[in-house]
UniProtKB/TrEMBL annotation:
The keyword Transferase applies. This is CMGC/MAPK protein kinase. Keywords: ATP-binding, Kinase, Nucleotide-binding, Serine/threonine-protein kinase, Transferase. SUPFAM superfamilies: Protein kinase-like (PK-like) (SSF56112). The keyword Repeat does not apply. InterPro entries: Kinase-like_dom_sf, MAPK, Prot_kinase_dom, Ser/Thr_kinase_AS. One of its GO terms (molecular function) is protein serine/threonine kinase activity. It comes from Thanatephorus cucumeris (strain AG1-IA). Residues 1-205 form the Protein kinase domain.
Length: 235
């Protein structure tokens, strides 16, 4: 996918189909309580028929993974997801992060398909947050207090106020449905971010809504066992 985005303009039909297949793969993973944690264009494989598969599960983890003490520090690590596609809650150390981090990555990938370039190409941790806030604006009070570490809250408080930049202005050639999909996937608060299941039913993907969904995968993960899961967007 990375090479395709870099070498040609994708039609909206292509973007819809690729995002739909990515979400199908995520639905399979999330149904087994597994988070990919490293979704990006180079981890989406395409063939000449536009069939898509998700690859590279080196950072995938179960949401049930826990330390013997009962904490989840072994799972809730900051160094997940390539920086440009990394959800803000990972960097700001919310109490925990969830399947919503994969949804954020999907939004970043769609934005890149629509424009041909990464939406948040941060050079480092601080620059990444700056780019995100330049688009989403300063967090609301509810979003601010969802950040659990004082250091992160102090960092956000010290930043100048930023107004939100509408996605319709950032992507003037995108359809209204594509803009709405971006808005719902790239929501700062992970609790308010659209789920994979709801994203699959979004009007932007209406052409594919009638395709039967796969059955949920069984829960294969245990706190002491991890293995490679292969999920594909089309069965």
């Amino acid at each position: 996918m990375h090479r395709v985005i870099r070498t040609q303009d994708l039609s909206d039909d292509h973007a819809q189909y690729f995002i739909y297949q990515t979400l199908r793969a995520l639905k399979a993973l999330h149904s087994a309580d597994v988070i990919h944690r490293d979704l990006k264009p180079s981890n989406l494989l395409l063939n000449a028929n536009c069939d898509l598969k998700v690859c590279d599960f080196g950072l995938a983890r179960s949401v049930r993974t826990a330390e013997p003490s009962g904490t989840e520090t072994g799972f809730m690590t900051e160094y997940v997801a390539t920086r440009w596609y990394r959800a803000p809650e990972i960097m700001l150390t919310f109490k925990q992060y969830t399947k919503a981090i994969d949804v954020w990555s999907v939004g970043c990938i769609l934005a890149e398909m629509l424009s041909g370039k990464p939406l948040f190409p941060g050079r480092d941790y601080h620059h990444q947050l700056t780019l995100i806030l330049d688009v989403l604006g300063t967090p609301t009070l509810d979003e601010f207090y969802a950040i659990t570490t004082r250091r992160s809250r102090d960092y956000i408080r010290a930043l100048p106020f930023r107004k939100r930049r509408p996605f319709a202005q950032l992507f003037p050639n995108a359809s209204a449905l594509a803009v709405d999909f971006l808005t719902k996937t790239l929501t700062f608060d992970p609790k308010k971010r659209i789920t994979v299941e709801d994203a699959l039913c979004h009007p932007y993907l209406e052409a594919y809504v009638m395709i039967p969904m796969m059955s949920p995968l069984p829960l294969l993960w245990t706190p002491t066992f991890s293995s490679l899961i292969v999920a594909q967007g089309r069965h």
